[in-house]
Amino acid sequence: MFNKKYFFALTWTLILAAFTVYVLLDTFVIARGRIVSDDDYYDSLFDNAEKSTLDDTAPNGRQGDEKGNGDKQGRLTDTEESFTDTSISNGAVSEIGSYGDENISVTVTKHRKYDTDIYVAEVYLSSMKYFKTAFANDTYGRNVTVRTSETAKAKNAILAVNGDYYGARSEGFVIRNGKLYRDTPSYDREALVINTNGEFTIVKESESSAAELIDHGAAHVFSFGPSLVRKGEISLSQKDEYGRSATNNPRTAIGITDKLRYVFVTADGRTRTSRGLTIRQLAEFMTDLGVWAAYNLDGGGSATMYFDGKVINNPTTNGRSICERSVSDIVYIGY
Length: 335
Description:
The protein is built from five helices and 22 strands. The chain has helices at 4-28, 39-44, 148-154, 210-215, 279-288, and strands spanning 32-35, 92-100, 104-113, 116-125, 131-135, 139-142, 146-147, 159-162, 174-176, 179-182, 190-195, 200-204, 218-223, 227-230, 233-234, 251-258, 261-267, 293-296, 305-307, 310-311, 326-327, 329-333. Strands 2-3-4-17-16-18-14-15 form an eight-stranded antiparallel sheet, with helices on one face. The chain has a five-stranded antiparallel sheet with strand order 5-22-8-19-20, with helices on one face. The N and C termini lie far apart (74 Å).
């Protein structure tokens, strides 16, 4: 005998299961996005900008006064204190390679600290137009991911690291190459603002507006964090050091040491040869490099550094295999 009660219950169960599967696929699998092309627009932002020169007129090749102090550009805007004159070559295990022309200088070294292999790229630019970001497949959206090295090769990047993996979240400002893509704040998150003049500023998204950041010259805004260093001092709160931040993991960070001078840092982890860094250790390492401001990007299996046409670190998610995780965006140096 046909039982309507059980029929409707079964039908409702199947509908609910199908809806749940769809939501999961839509959240984690189905790619949705729009193709973007920002290169020409981004370059145009700097057409009338004053160009620096890559020379040796200041100590360590830095631009500035006779003491080697840079101007306000390239540092947090609320101070005029001078930088500590620190060379990142101190403590380096080996030099991996270098690149140099009239606009871009990159030197990559490998360090050993905290039982971890750490890769440091010192970058010196004549203009911020060579500090760029890129979306996977040139597409902004959800579940659009490609390995860092593949996106870097597509952009002919000289140097690249993974970005903030914006596509894994529905909140957090996304400004890239001078264009606003997402203005929904993540209220518990600090964002890194990189302005067209090259300076780094840390803002609380709950106290900021993405449109205002654009109006004030934001070239890129990353929403991951936390901030590691501000005004040359470690800026971590107790909350920043809880949970996963207190465990040893692969990490990626970027910092600024002077006007148009930056460091890109990627630490291996989760392997027998590299433990990985806690967020505190990463912040301490960044201060050892003499940064004025530094910010933590996506880590774990995403942590990847690409230089001279290849991945130079050992990215891994589980420690059992060396393999890049596909990510939604990269930060890179190039033309």
